[in-house]
Amino acid sequence: MATTSIAIPGQLLGPASRYKPGPGVHLYEKNLYSSVLGTVSVAQPSSTTSSSSSTSSGPGPAKRISRITQTLAQSKAGASELPTVSVSRDVGAPGAGRKKREVLPQVGNVVLCRVTRITPRQAVVAILVCGDTVLEAEWQGVIRVQDVRATEKDRVKIYESFRPGDIVRASVISLGDQSNYYLATASNELGVIMAVSEAGNAMYPVSWKEYKDPETGLSESRKVAKPF
């Protein structure tokens, strides 16, 4: 795993046998997952010598270390040697004396967004990431029914393509009006990249238009993004 990258909620960061969870990270079934949207950082353990801890801090006879105490100390030392992975909402501190520049989505940018609500004609989304930059503010966008797919546009149904809570990779096609960016998923690489079933379980894609719940075995329709 790279020491610095962008993570979205629920993204796998690595096994618990290689990393310790830090802020913004939770443990689930021996794996570490991101709890928030932000920048991933890995902090290496500080090099501390065990000899300093074994020396006596005051006068008096040295204490005899039993085998059980020594084993516990070694196990704690082994656990502390793991690097700590954390996810921070701050994507970089501004330079000294300078204000951080806000990134605005532009036409042609690929963005990550979360579906907030759907109507028969469009899906309303909150834009979270533009390129490799986590946005300070959530910008609102819409994916109109005619911009979901490049073919068979007259057969597209919004409720079969997106659901509230889905994480979508989309492209900015227009700056839109004063309140919304216009986005499109009319490409194989664009569409839903993370989805949760009606039962509340994380699903995995099985085709270009279907996600499956591994717990219940039920499938749900989505406009699925092709993996890179």
UniProtKB/TrEMBL annotation:
The keyword Cytoplasm applies. One of its GO terms (molecular function) is RNA binding. The keyword Chloroplast does not apply. GO terms for biological process: RNA processing. SUPFAM superfamilies: Nucleic acid-binding proteins, Ribosomal L27 protein-like. Residues 43-64 are annotated as: Disordered. Residues 106-187 form the S1 motif domain. Residues 46-57 have a biased composition (Low complexity). Keywords: Cytoplasm, Exosome. It is found in: Nucleus, Nucleolus. GO terms for cellular component: cytoplasm; nuclear exosome (RNase complex); nucleolus. This is S1 motif domain-containing protein. It comes from Cytospora leucostoma.
